[in-house]
Batch of 4 targets.
Target 1
Amino acid sequence: MLPKAELHVHIEGTLEPELLVRLAARNAIALPTTDVEALRRRYRFSDLQSFLDVYYESQAVLRTEEDFYDLAGAYLQRAAGQGVRRAEIFFDLQQHLDNEIEAGTVFSGLDRALRESRESHGVDAALIMCFLRDRGPEAAMRALRAAMPFRDRFIGVGLDSSELGHPPSRFRDVFAAAASEGLHRVAHAGEEGGPDYVWEALDDLHVERIDHGNRAMEDPALVERLRSEGIPLTVCPLSNVALKVVDRLDEHVLPRMLAEGLCVTLNSDDPAYFGGYVEDNFVAVREHLGLDEQALLTMAANSFDACFADEARREAWKAELHGTSSGSAPVP
Ligand code: ADE
Ligand code: ZN
């Protein structure tokens, strides 16, 4: 198993049915069913929106600092078992605020799990707050304001949720405000939206990575832009199959992305719902897309190049990946 960074995972999407049932009981919240297998059977989706409906509904069980701590701790433990050295983790503060949870509760719980993680799981982790694009730019600005007292606990902002009809250009001001606070910027684009959404994410939001990016492959000029500027794509193959972005894994654009020389990384997105964590995505693309060891190594190396950790840590992880430990630079 290769060491890797995971750059596209929603912490709320790591809520396994077992933990969902436990948190619901702890917080006296009614679920449609407490049968874990029956919950799993609900995880069949026809598109992104059909998933988001279940995903947001499930988040109602997250109420206390302890809940957020348990959620992130469980993910980080699993991530360690999947070879993850660095995790840059999305969270949907806006949804929790709408559920009348205070920002401090969310930040404290997640942050405590992340701070303990290097020691207990050997995973270095950081948070990226996503704006929910279907709730509009004013709500995004309110979420940014609510998060600013906790500025030292997250490293960047992203853009997620229902894509079609909610183009990146609407979020220019809030991304500019985030940039002026020194926050990194990423955005989901080209999962269901067309190449124009990817152009807007680059030109209007000045993002440093594109999350998904599948439909960028429809536009040769955009492919050239992504290649020449080395913009990383955080691709999520098992998610794409689960949400019917592609009909079958063997039809995925990943091999074309690699052949075009794009900086592709592999990620799990919402692993509790899509049947696989990040290493499972590596195994699946090797089996179904015929990618060889070199391609997998390239994507693992890309994940370290594309992450927002400092250069010393990135180089140490890459040295570990290539089995060329320098001796003087232990993995932090
Ligand atoms: N939120 C959680 N998972 C998502 C995805 N795959 N696309 C958009 N928003 C999301
Ligand atoms: Zn995502």
Note: Confidence is low (pLDDT under 50) at residues 325-332.
Target 2
Amino acid sequence: MTTPHWIFGDQLGPHFLTPAGKDGPDRGAPVVMIEARSVFRRRRYHRAKAHLVLSAMRHRAAELGGRVTYVRAETYREGLRRAVGGTSVTVCHPTSHAALRLVRSLPRVQVLPARGFLVSGEEFAGWAEGRGGRRLLQEDFYRWVRQEHDLLMEGGHPAGGRFNHDHANREPPPSGTRELDVPSPYVPREDDIDAGVRDDLDRWEREDGVRFVGRDGPRRFPATRREALSALRRFVDRRLASFGPYEDAMLTGDPVMSHSLLSSSLNLGLLHPAECVERAERAWRKGAVPVNSAEGFVRQVAGWREYVWQLYWHFGEDYRHGNALGHTEELPEYFTELDADAVTANCLATVLAQVRDTGWTHHIPRLMVLGSHALQRAWDPAAVTDWFHRCFVDGYDWVMVPNVVGMSQYADGGRMTTKPYTSGGAYIHRMSDLCDGCAYRPTDRTGPHACPYAAGYWAFLHRHRRLLSGNARMRRAVQGLDRLRDLDEVLRQELRRASEVP
Ligand code: SF4
């Protein structure tokens, strides 16, 4: 008799159903899917994210047809009881500590190894152990993955003679242009399933006390494997070539630029990372894309994404509570409500509007505009993590805990990164057109045009002077404080502005 296999809403690709002896579901196993309303009651998600997840689950159920038992329930526990009664089920290792605790607490649920990643937990543990106590640096992990998986390698050497092409991938946007000259990304077409989801979300808001944030629609991200494959194909064939040089740049009128927009498809499990990086590598081998672009994309998928997944489990459940800088300020209402129109600072207003309207912005606005401002204003890192998790279409616990606690807010005291990531207005000015037309000036620290990032940067360094002066990568920046004649004025001003909308 085949054992039913339960798939979560982020396990939607065919690779979650492939049989593999004792490590996989039974061949042709009946499938169980549960839409648990409590998930949407617990957290106030971006509505476009709720729409995407529900649309993807319902599309997958429609594809599986009579093979699936799809239950709409209040909780997973109730849904599983209704779906299979007392029968045993298998499930692939879920993607959060909370979900893992849940499935382990349920009787007759057999948890199979995780899927959807290039590196297994055992392989990572072996790599980490082999480092003999040295830091688990992303760059070292990434190079190991490239070698282990023979990715972008030529005769044992990295393609293009080096593992890291960051030097070619940090170009500011081309001057005098509002949009990158690149074909537009794949855009899915909504169908009746999307209309049904939208009706349900309306009804939940109206009658059931469920609350969302942000704007929903039209859907911009793939909800089916077919859509995700189309998006991958279009990205690699039409957009990857210009991805590398401008991957860190920002343009007010072009939030997407050459980015792949594949993170939500990967994190829903619609795509496997192997097929994404292999396709990029093939494009490079054919001479269709330069090596720095292929490498930049492979680094995101096979380097950063895998690294973040492994660290989430490696650091354990308490990691999320890290607050090495002692930041406790509440997130202001304009931020939690995604009220971009209330914000004067052009960079923050623009990026917040992108999040409000789409549930997405690329990695640099996340890190150097949203995250940097939160860090400078000493916002509670747990609340910042929760905000990113709720407001981004690709946000999941395993993604956001390391990315925000470790990378963006330095709340782990440097376990993940070697320094805090924040900057003054000069960085944003160099890497974008966002300062053009802003009411503030990126070089002004004080006065009516004082840029919140320029002043906030120095206030941040001053607040953590002692801690940061012990960090070799921050020492010079901290020494710069002593050369600021107007430091006292900057600090007084930032104290006053701490509770103001920037
Ligand atoms: Fe942002 Fe400052 Fe530039 Fe305005 S001047 S867009 S606040 S960095």
Note: The pocket of iron/sulfur cluster is lined by residues 345-347, 425, 428-429, 434-435, 438, 440-442, 451-453 (CB under 6 Å).
Target 3
Amino acid sequence: MIDTLKHKGMRKKLIEELRLKGIDNELVLDAMMDIPRHLFFFDTAFLHMAYVDKAFPIGSGQTISQPYTVAFQTSLLNPRKREKILEIGTGSGYQTAVLAKLGMKIFTIERQQALHAKSQSLLEEMGYKARCYYGDGYAGKPAFAPFDKILVTCGAPHIPEDLKNQLKVGGRMVIPVGEFNGVQHMMSLDKVSETEFEVSNHGDFQFVPMLERTDTRD
Ligand code: SAH
């Protein structure tokens, strides 16, 4: 699959749309302008949907996040080069690619084996550096903690203690929290000391649920 001028044109329009919707982090917009989102659509029948601002099915009952949501969460993280980030929910790998483009050092976990395998090989093929793991994001990656940033891209019923513990003091976690099959609140947690967090709510979003354990038979 290749990136054509037509794709670039569609991408440019999408970026303008994100700007109109209030995204103003130029680094994030530049990264998204560079990344061929259509290559993360595993089913080529739907390539024409790649530059519409919508979530879309990627198999295993999961979705590639809506571009606005990716832009919003990434901006909220305030990403900086060389920061160490833990991402929960690799999915298609698109959000991972955005973080890689921004120069972050990425550890990403996916609980669906098939998606993990596909996104890992796609990211490698495209030259985006990320350490991809098959596993349960609730446990995080204690061996590589602490992280400067933690990004959760599935809807969590609560904020997992293990993830709070794996965040650096001075670091930030962005996580959508709320009931399964309902609306989630986009929360940011700034870790101000080993035991204290400043928490803010940035509005309502909808995500696929953050499920426990690794199981493809959901
Ligand atoms: N960032 C992805 C979003 C994919 S949707 C993208 O842009 O494509 C969220 C993903 O979280 C799904 O692939 C789902 O399988 C995964 N997920 C759900 N619960 C999880 C858990 N406990 N640990 C790791 N991944 C999980």
Note: Residues 62-65, 88-89, 91-92, 94-95, 109-112, 115, 136-138, 153-154, 208, 210-211 surround S-adenosyl-L-homocysteine (CB under 6 Å).
Target 4
Amino acid sequence: MIVGIDLGTTNSAVAVWRDGEAQLIPNALGDFLTPSAISIGEDDQVIVGLPARDRRETHPGRTATAFKRLMGTQQRTKLGRHLFDAEQLSALILGSLKADAETFLGEPVTEAVITVPAYFNDRQRKATRRAGELAGFNVRRLLNEPTAAALAYGLQDRGEKEPFLVFDLGGGTFDVSIVEIFDGIIEVRASAGDNRLGGEDFNEIVVDLARKELPADLLELNSPNIIELQRAAAERTRRALSENDSADFVITIGDRQEKVQITAAAFEAAAEPLVARLRDPVLRSLRDSGVMAETLSEIVLVGGATRMPIVRRAVTRMFGRFPDATINADHAIALGAAVQAGLLSRDEALDEVRLTDVCPFTLGVNNAVRDARGGMQTGIFSPIIERNTPIPASRVNYYHTISDNQQAIVFDIYQGEAREVKHNIKLGTMRIPVPPKPAGHVTVECRFSYDTSGLLEVDVTVPDTGLTYNLVIFDEDAKIANQQMEQRRAVLAQLKVHPRDDATNQAVLARAARCYESFIADRRELVGTWILEFEAALAAQDPRTIEHARKQITTALDHLEGERFL
Ligand code: AMP
């Protein structure tokens, strides 16, 4: 049996082709989505999925999320006393999905189709393939995510030259692709996007609206994870607003709980500027592919954030017709991978053409910018080559001195997508001496050149002195990664994965611990009592007692912090 896997940045999912249709496979908690999160327990056990994500706040030094962004790099993440690269972390997610599939199907599962973003380059694709192999899969094929979405919607059953537009708005990124079949080969004709636009940005809108109404002293309370609490409250409110005309923003900080009612109308008015940004990538993808909007056979919505009515209306307005959203937006890619798996097992697989090579990450330098109050904010990322730029590419930016008689400009070179450089990956540093002059009077030219082998060349020219400085940054060879396969497999083999039959209880305990840390006083005490009661039920080892206790604590926690979501 071949399974289809969506290995996502936020969530992953696995599906199979069975009885003539693609079917999703539930994990040990009964969910179809498994958060792409890994945590290492104090007992050195690997925790995967929802309980791992709940430990992100309580055990930040032992928990990793969003590691898909590091695929194809040598960057390692330290979890407890272990160091992992993105391939190994992905392998642990894949291994967990494999176990879910084996439990569901009742037989060993060794073959998989795994999806990757259309803009993944060769290195990132090879890394994904190796992650699959590390998890014990024979990776039959890597499939572009938009192609998978189009397959889930039946592209393969349409005639030739019926292009699909795949509109994918996820938690943090927005991708638009035009997918087409020609001569039995599927091609992603064009891909455009905005890697800084997703559900999280809409959460910020909700937080801003709520903060206007929240008592000022509440916001001054010194809660260590206030940002995360607001974000989680906003996420719940926004999801509720997808179904209702108004919803409560509920936040519990320490021993206080506050509620602010937010109407869909207010949210949508405030979200207009974000919605306006959806238009440009759509136009670019149409322009780049030479496809006319009227000839699109289907407009397909994927990514959880397309559930927002305001997004759906915007798409309908853009195209003058309704998009197709009959398949659950979070499931479409895994289901499409299962369609490809089904075709492969019948030896009828569709072939795919790859996009030309593109630069997978944004490359740039650190910069200082003037903030609203006239002060200088440092450590801000200034992109030079944007993600998705076809390579080889060469781009230039100009930078000025910021203080009088400044002796040098230091360029730290980064790869990544975050606004603050500290969240990106540092690749190197250059110190460029400049002649002392009043602030802003010296300008230097910084040129980045990036090629298909992953080689980045930085040239900085100081026109005042006529001097040029050069730095070449090599990508550590993927060969090393290949050579290390056995060693890395051995590292993973040593780790014990938490027993599957204990997954639900473990998830509840991780959540309760997170709540305990975020509350204080009476609420904290209450959660502490519930944890003790639940632990006592676990110690009794009677399944019925455990189930009863689990329901009780879950209901109580839902009541305290609102219902949970994936
Ligand atoms: P994905 O990256 O495709 O898993 O999408 C995750 C994003 O979808 C997150 O930002 C979620 O807030 C968003 N999302 C999921 N369900 C809903 C919903 N019912 N209403 C609004 N946004 C949602």
Note: The mean pLDDT is 88.
